[in-house]
Design goal:
There is one protein chain. The chain has two domains: 149 residues; 242 residues, paralog of FGE (formylglycine-generating enzyme). 40% of the residues are buried. Helix 1 packs antiparallel against helix 4, helix 2 packs parallel to helix 4 and helix 2 packs antiparallel against helix 5. The protein is globular and about 65 Å long. It has nine helices and twelve strands. The strands form four sheets. A four-stranded mixed sheet has the order 10-9-8-11. It has a three-stranded antiparallel sheet with strand order 1-4-12, covered by helices on one side. A three-stranded antiparallel sheet has the order 5-6-7, with no helix packed on it. By secondary structure, the protein is of the alpha+beta class. The structure holds fe (ii) ion (FE2). Fe (ii) ion binds next to helix 5.
């Protein structure tokens, strides 16, 4: 058990650094927008988490690596202390990248010593949380880098593909029906889950149907070409004012070159692959698209009910596709459920009945963000494998586009369907 946790800790830390291998030193330091942090900050902050919540508490005689780091790399934990402003992280030219790696390796050393010598149920839970937290930052490293590279007209390539992305059959989408009734959602207590996935509880679902694969870029292009971005009747009021203000006419990373739509990817600028799942749209765009099709987004309970027995496979970060992939097969049931793009649901991020955050600083991890955010499900091609579950609740504000976020359509079951 001890060895298992220690090994998983090290594997996770190494995978983070493996994701940084293609970077030039310059790439570590720039902050391209307030929501996106420099890679250097992610590397230090995920280390700060272990230092602050594990070593400071359980390693006897532990001496802080640097008192300044307590302030610089605290993200949002008010009970730990003041934080350096989030939108100014790109101004931190010190510590250097080399110093941040030295910080990581010093903390890794201390963590290994602690995990080899000390066993404690609560400590194990916090280390597990730290591993899951680091995995979340692995995804953010990729999405924040993509945003940074996407600002550069030289279109830097993060990953040179060894092979073409797999292509599928491009079968037209079908529907999978669910009879509805009483069901249970939420985590049942075995294995890791975030506090907000609990408690498991009953919900009543009306009969519904889900589209058996994700909305493709080609399908979304039909919405664009039909003037979808110019029709206020399709949009929520806040969505309409947002797209007007931001001048959005297409998904983030789409641009026209020589009369052809292109898409910036972590593999560089490429013609939009029309059969691949659409990515990088806001909740507002997902909602407007669904309305245009005469359909709707699923609720998170519908999504979870439909996904609960399905195998968790997809183009996770380890596959190094770093881009969602066409459905590779046709058949009964839902495809592309996990590991391609996060799927917007129409559910606001709010507490399950009976939810209470854990006591202490770690109670700030999730619960305090339950305002003005929507739930997304399924994980993406930037999510590390092993991080996702059918009960997993991701959340972002409705105008967020820099994550790999897309659409699975839903509709009410009616007579004749
Ligand atoms: Fe964090």
């Amino acid at each position: 058990m001890k060895m298992d946790l220690s090994n998983r800790f090290l594997r996770t830390r190494r995978f983070t650094e493996q994701l940084c291998k293609p970077l030039a030193t310059e790439d570590y330091v720039v902050q391209a927008m307030p929501d996106a942090s420099p890679t250097r900050w992610h590397l230090a902050h995920s280390t700060w988490f272990f230092e602050t919540f594990v070593l400071a508490r359980w390693k006897s005689g532990y001496q802080q690596f640097s008192p300044d780091f307590q302030y610089l790399f605290n993200s949002y934990y008010n009970s730990v202390g003041e934080q350096f402003p989030r939108d100014r992280r790109g101004l931190l030219t010190r510590p250097t990248v080399v110093e941040v790696f030295a910080y990581r390796h010093a903390i890794d050393q201390c963590m290994q010593e602690l995990l080899a010598s000390h066993e404690d149920m609560e400590m194990t839970e916090v280390v597990e949380l730290g591993i899951q937290h680091e995995q979340q930052h692995q995804e953010l490293i990729l999405t924040d880098l993509k945003y940074l590279f996407g600002c550069n007209p030289l279109w830097p390539v993060y990953h040179e593909p060894g092979a073409q992305l797999p292509t599928g059959h491009r079968a037209s989408a079908g529907w999978t029906a669910f009879p509805g009734g009483m069901t249970s959602v939420g985590h049942d207590g075995s294995g890791f889950a975030f506090d907000t996935e609990r408690p498991r509880h009953k919900v009543l679902l009306r009969p519904f149907e889900l589209q058996d694969r994700l909305v493709s870029s080609g399908e979304y292009l039909e919405f664009i070409e039909s003037g979808g971005y110019n029709k206020p009747e399709l949009w929520l009021s806040l969505g309409w004012s947002t797209i007007r203000q931001q001048e959005w006419k297409a998904p983030l990373y789409w641009s026209m070159h020589n009369g052809q739509w292109h898409e910036f990817t972590l593999r560089g600028l490429r013609p939009v692959e029309m059969g691949s799942p659409l990515a990088h749209i806001s909740y507002f765009e997902a909602d407007a698209y669904a309305r245009w099709r005469g359909m709707r987004l699923p609720t998170e309970a519908e999504w979870e009910h439909a996904a609960s027995d399905l195998p968790i496979d997809g183009s996770f970060a380890e596959s190094q596709h770093f881009h969602p992939v066409e459905a590779a097969e046709t058949g009964d049931g839902l495809l592309q459920v996990f590991g391609e793009v996060w799927q917007w649901t129409q559910s606001t991020y709010s507490p399950y009945p009976g939810y209470s955050p854990p006591p202490g600083a770690l109670g700030e991890y999730n619960g305090k963000f339950m305002c003005n955010q929507y739930v997304l499900r399924g994980g993406s091609c930037a999510t590390p494998a092993g991080h996702i579950r059918s009960t997993y609740r991701n959340f972002f504000p409705p105008d967020a586009r820099w994550q790999f976020s897309g659409i699975r359509l839903a509709r009410d079951a009616v007579d004749g369907h």
